[in-house]
Structures are given as C-alpha cells and as structure tokens.
Amino acid sequence: MTLSELEEGLQARIIDLSGINPLVRRRLLDLGILEGSMIRLIHRLPLRGAFALEVNHQEFGLRYAEAKRIEVEVV
Amino acid sequence: MKSIALAGNPNTGKTSLFNMLTKSYEYVGNWTGVTVEKKVGKLKSGDAELVDLPGIYSLNPLSKDEGVSIHYLMNEMPSTIINIVDGSLLERNLNLTVQLLEYGQPLLIGLNMVDIAKSRGIRIDQKKLAKLLGVPVVPIIARTGSGCDEVLDKLDQSVSPSTFQIDYGEIIEQAISVIDARLEADPPYHHRWLAIQFLEGNQVVKDKLSAWIPEEDLNQLYDQTEKRIKDTGESHSLPSYIYKARNERIKAIIGDSVHVEQNSTTNWTEKIDRILLNRFLGIPLFLAVMYLVFQFTFDWLGSQISDQLDGFLSGPVSDGLTWLLTTCGASSFIKSVVLEGIVSGVGGVLVFVPQIFILFFFISWLEDSGYMARIALLMDRLMSSVGLNGKAFIPMIIGFGCNVPGIMAARTIEHPKERLLTILLSPLMSCSARLTVYALFAAAFFSSHQSLIVLSLYVLSIVTALLLAKLFSSTFLKHEDQSAFVIELPPYRVPQWRILLRSTWEKGKGFVRKAGTFIFGGSVVIWLLSYSGPSGFDVEMNQSFLAIIGNAIAPLFDPIGFGNWQAGASLLTGFLAKEVVVSTMNINDA
C-alpha cells in the first residue's frame, strides 16, 4: 500500500522511496528517513492537503502527491 | 582575527547559541562568491569572531541557503568549528558532524537539547561520545545559556584536529587515493575530504576540483566508481552508498555511547498538533490567531500607545522645542524647519513605532514557538494550487514586517522557479511602512472597526499576490517538474523573553534607523519645497514648489478620484520610502 492510504495514528515501514521526486528523497535522507524507517501518520489535512508524519520522534510535513508515491507496509 | 564557524542542523538552537556566545555587537556582511548575508559576531571572550552559518543537514547543498556553508568552508577556512548537535536527534545530526570532521579543522561539539533527549529516555554518555569522535563534547542548553561558558573556555584552549576517519570500503577508498595522487600538494584542503564530497555528488566541490583535475577525468572517475558500486548490488548510486557507510558507523557510535530506555512521557507537541492541525479547526484557528495579533497590534494595545506617544510629541515635545528655540532667539526659518518639518514629519512616522514593534513581537513569538512551520504546512494546499509552496507563506508573513527580510527568507525554498515567484510576490505584502499609511487612512476615513479595515487591506494584498502567482506560474514561470516540499515540524516550545525581545529588535531596528535617516531627510526636503516657491521663501502653501510639482502629476490620478496636488505630491515622495507618504501628508495638511 502507499503512505497516502495509511490510517491516521498508524505506523508502517517504508519499503520503496524510488518513485518520489529526487529533491524530496534527498531531503528525507537528510532527515534520516530511508527505506526501512518506521513512519507514523499523525495528521492528514483536508482536500488532499499536506501530511504530518513522524519518524524517530521527529515530526515533518509532506505533500499528498509525494505520500502517494511512497510504498509502505504495515507491520 | 581568528575566525570561528558555528555550524549545525536547522532547528537545533544555533541562533540562541550564537547570541549567547557573542556580545550584542554584530554585523552583517556578504559572503564571497554569493550575495547572501552572513552574520558575524565578536566572541564574549577574546578577540575571535564567530560566523553563523545557515542551518544545514549535509555539506552537499540542496538550496541556495545551504550553498552558503560549503562556499564558506571552501573560501575562508575557519580556525575552529563549533558544531551544535541536537542530542534528541543524534543519528541525523552526526551525519553533518562526520562531514565536518572530515573537513579536518579543529572541531568542538555543543551537545544541545540533552533535556529533551532525557525526557524521551535517551541518555548520552558524552565522555564516550567525545572519545569515539576524537573531539571535545560540551553539554549545553542554548536557550538558557547553560554550558556556554564552558564552550568559551574550551575555545581558549587549543583544540587539535580529530583523527576520526571512516573506512568507506575498497572501491571508494581506491577512488579517493586516485584523486589524492592527482592533487599532490596543491589545494589547501584535506584531499580526503574533497574526494569524499566529490564522490557524494557535491557540485560546489566538483567545480573547485576541476581547477586541478580536468572535468572529463573527474566525470570518468565518478562514472567508473558508480558502476563498480552498482555491480556489487549494494546500492543504486554512489551518494547513497557513501551515506549508508557513514550511517552504519554513526549507528555503531550511538550504540556505544547512548543508552535508550522505554519512556512513555506525554508527547505535548503531538497533543497540540492534534488541535492546531485538525482538518476542520486548523485553518480557522490560524485565522483566529492572525486576527488576535492584528487586534493587539492595532486596537487593544498598539493604538493606545501610539496615541499617547502622539500626544507626547505634539504636546510637551513641541512646546519644549518652541520654548527652547524662542529662548535661543532662533529665526522663524529655523523654527519652522524644526517644528513643521522635522517634528511633524518624523514624529508622524515615529508614532507607528509601537505598533510595528508589537507586530514584530508576535511574528517572533510565532517563529520561536514552532507554530510558523505548521502555518506553512496548513497553507501548502492553497499555495500549491497557485504554483507556490507552503514555505512561501513564511517569507510573505515576514514581508508584512518588511519586504527585504521577506525576500531573504525565500532562500530556504529549494525549487528555483518557486523561489523566484516568491521573491516576485513578496513585495506585494503590506510591509510595516505601508501599515503607517493604512493606519492613517483607516483612522481618517472610518470611525469604527479600524482593525478589521486594516486586516481586510492585508487580505486584499494576499489575494492579489495569489492571483498574480497563478498568472505567473501558468505563463512565463511554468514548470513541469514537481516541486519539493518537506518541512520539519519542530517541537512546540514556550518562547523565552530574551530571545523574543532580541529577535523583535533585530526585525524592528531598521524602521527606527530609517526614521532617523531617510524620513528625517525626506521631511526636511518636503518642508523646504512647501516653504519655498517661485516668489521666494515663506510663501502660501498652494504657491509653493511642492504644489507646482503636485499639480503637474495630479491629472494622472484624476481617473481614480484624487486629482488634488496634495495627493500627487504625497505619492511622489512615497518612492523614497513608503512612510514618507505619511510625513508628506502631515506637513502638507499642517
């Protein structure tokens, strides 16, 4: 499934980041987020707005379009 | 003078530490090579200067803002680097630390946010960490200043460069030695550092390297090495291979020096976000916050203080000056220039100082509390629909204070076209200078609901900016490639008075300085134009040079309904500085 389908409050493991914009991928890497990281969806803003996410106790925001391209699996 | 650099990830308390380590004296200069401002302060102890580098995650830049740091390290080798590290996010922070260690200059780690780490059950053995990295580690709490004296003490003693090195594996090490051999003794940088940065895809370093090694050779070496990496099947690119090797070592270091225990303390940030980022409440709450800020600035607090200041200037100050000038036996010319020119001109603008500082105080509060990043997140949907980025909202809000720092804040936007668009639109934001004009009009034309009137003028400027953004992004600034939007949401914090006051002053001092220079000079010139005319000095106002100039351009404004010479003259002076419109009107109508 993709990150955009994850339920609010649930955690999943990132399995594929290759579909996203390289700039975004680089920035996620800077934040220490890569394949294998455990990611949790805190909030989803309305009208396909941004996503508030959490990895390793740090919160960050991402667009719907990007979340749609991140493959995750619930463990 | 010795130059010390302060480097670290964004949101690690770097600015707080900078303020704690330096005297209030600081200056802003230009970086060599790039026209971006740098902040330099004098250290509290001794005669070294401290250079504040923009927050970065890695030496390999992604935005213009981040490029500043690598340009600095390439052009002006600092004698020591202070690396501020967020103890609660150690793994990510050490990625930069390792790159700075490889740079080869002496390094000192300021370990910040140990308190936050502790509350999450993370205990850092700082002695062990210092030993593993080969550099001094000083625990600090930058916001309160605890530990900063120890940082200064450590800087006084000579710190020796670390011998820390990572073995990147046979393939990478071979490529490094090829570059090292080609460089011989030439560049004054650590060859190993240059080679690693180059192999990681750092364009700035590559440009520098091409001065010694032909670009084709560099490209060939890069491609060959990348191919060998791909063949091993361990990684799909050279940069990610290096990242992984580095990350493995960092994980090993953390494993040896950090003890984590399960700790289930309440996460306040998430609780607050559940409300502030709520899908229904988020945007209404943001609008409510902005409304409160405007109410405080204009109705509840600001206008009271402004009225009192106005009364003080037109009462005791004017009377005192009149008395003083009369006792000195000043001529009527001098009296007129002081009372009608300077006092009413500069005074008319000075009365807005309280409102401007109150607005800046609240903007600083929003920044320091962590809410500003949430605003960017909330606004991204709207902004992206006109081809912008949620982050563009922050430069625009800062643009409310002054357009110049607003434009400078656009540097944090990674995508070049979005950055250009933000820069083009930021000047449409109603800056504090326009606020004086709005406030004057609101007071002159509306007897009640003045803050609502001013707020709607602000909203109008935002709507205009968004419409133009849509127009620009769908015409000449069209881009097919997608923009990047990743924003860190730092934990909420209670802002500290000292930080708030300093940052309010930083933002507002420009306005006060302008009142003393541009507006002062402008007032005198306008007064002189209104005092003199073709027939000599002390003429009737409508016989003055100002009336002649105003009359000449008045027909231009006739279609929009204010074709009198006073309005024409006021608009003309607004080119100098928008506040001068207000002082022109004060002088004209005096």
TrEMBL record, chain A:
Keyword Electron transport applies: no
GO molecular function, a single term: transition metal ion binding
Record key words, sorted: Iron
Pfam families in UniProt: FeoA (PF04023)
Ferrous iron transporter FeoA-like domain mapped to chain residues: 1-74
This protein's record includes keyword Iron: yes
Annotated TM spans: none
Protein's recorded name: Ferrous iron transport protein A
Species: Baia soyae
Automatic annotation (TrEMBL), chain B:
InterPro entries: Fe2_transport_prot-B, Fe2_transport_prot_B_C, FeoB_Cyto, FeoB_GTPase, G_FEOB_dom, Gate_dom, P-loop_NTPase
Transmembrane regions listed in the UniProt entry: 280-301, 321-339, 346-366, 386-408, 420-446, 452-472, 511-531
Alphabetical keyword list: Cell membrane, GTP-binding, Ion transport, Iron, Iron transport, Magnesium, Membrane, Metal-binding, Nucleotide-binding, Transmembrane, Transmembrane helix, Transport
UniProt function note: Probable transporter of a GTP-driven Fe(2+) uptake system.
Originating species: Baia soyae
Keyword DNA damage: no
Single annotated GO MF: metal ion binding
Coiled coil: none
Family to which the UniProt record says this protein belongs: Belongs to the TRAFAC class TrmE-Era-EngA-EngB-Septin-like GTPase superfamily. FeoB GTPase (TC 9.A.8) family.
Location (main, coarse): membrane
Gene3D superfamilies attached to this UniProt entry: 1.10.287.1770, P-loop containing nucleotide triphosphate hydrolases
Location(s), subcellular: Cell membrane
UniProt membrane topology term: Multi-pass membrane protein
Name listed for the protein in its UniProt record: Ferrous iron transport protein B
Protein residues bound to GTP: 8-15, 33-37, 52-55, 112-115
Residue ranges constituting the FeoB-type G domain according to the UniProt record: 1-161
Top-rank lineage group of the source organism: Bacteria
Pfam families: FeoB_C, FeoB_Cyto, FeoB_N, Gate
Record has Cell membrane as a keyword: yes
Chain sites annotated for binding Mg(2+) 2: 19
A GO CC term attached to the entry: plasma membrane
Residues given in the record as Mg(2+) 1 binding sites: 22
